[in-house]
């Protein structure tokens, strides 16, 4: 069964590593990048970093970074709608 990008993003949001195993997330990312609209999964990918700020994802986080960099328009989502703090 082929899932659409929205379903894959939901699966990424629900992902939790079991016993430090991140392979399932890597497979979800591969599936997302092969989907009809991988850019729609950018928010879900960014939330992985928010959920696991002290992890390295056993190297899987690099897949997120490099994958997002291959998508047009990821920068505004990465930066968010925050107003910069005055220096």
Please explain how this structure is put together.
The chain is mainly α and 87 residues long. The protein is built from five helices and no strands. The protein has helices spanning 5-14, 23-33, 42-51, 60-69, 74-79. The longest helix has 11 residues, at 23-33. It is globular. The termini are far apart.
Mean pLDDT: 91
User: How many helical elements?
Assistant: 5
Low-confidence stretches: none
Number of domains: 1
In terms of DSSP E residues, the strand content is under 5%
By oligomeric state, this entry counts as single chain
User: What's the overall geometry?
Assistant: globular
Can I get a quick summary?
The protein has helices at residues 5-14, 23-33, 42-51, 60-69, 74-79. It has 87 residues and is mainly α. It is globular.
